[in-house]
Structure formats: C-alpha cells, structure tokens
Amino acid sequence: MKPVLLALAMLGASTCWAQASAPAASSHPHHEETVDDRVKELHAELKITPAEEDQWAKVADVMRNNAKSVDDLIQQRHDNAQKQTAVENLQSWNEIAQANAEGSKAMLDAFAALYTSMPDSQKKLADAAFRPAEAHSK
Asked: Is residue 22 part of a domain?
C-alpha cells in the first residue's frame, strides 16, 4: 500500500504546485481517471462490509467529486496559462488550494462517519492505511 498516494487520492490533492511549467494537463494522468481504482483498492484494504456500503458510497462520491473539481481547475489553469496575468495566475492557484481545502473537509466528514461505525479491528486497518510511508517502515 502506498499511503502517500492514498492521502493524495483521499483529499483530492494534486501535484499542481510542481506542475507550474509542466506540459499540458492532458499528458498527465487525471485524478478522476485514477480515483475509481483507488476507491476499489481502499474498499478492499479497509474490508468494507455490506452493512457499511451506504457510508462507503458517500466516501467514494467525495473522492470522485474532489478529483473532478481539482482536475477541472488544473485543466482551466493549463488552458489559460499563456494568457494569464500574474494576478490571474495567483488566483488560479488560490482556487485549486481552496478546492483542496473544501475537499479535505468533505472527506473528513464522510470518512469520520464511516470510521466511527467500524469495529476496532477495522479501525486499525484504516489507521494503518492513513499513516505516512515512513511510519510503516519503523
């Protein structure tokens, strides 16, 4: 399991800060294209039960919505990069950061509801899944 990728997918975060001068977004995998794979992996890793499916569906929807929101903003940024003023450039970064913050809050709310209902053994799986990579090697 790659916890860093998990965190990025879960929060709908992006590598947009590192892509300021990168090629067009179409040459990079989009979050919304890979988030369904991550949803399936996490579903299996957390051993989501049939009783948890409704709450899991809410988590999965948040993951998909977060990815789409960030992808759309990154695409807009790339589409307009050559004609943006400095202020517009900063505004586009702000919009991406705001989407990430809102997505993080939505993910927290959706996942906390699911986590609260999990038995302790399943919570341990979730706790491990959300730990940083360096915590796994200690």
From this structure: no
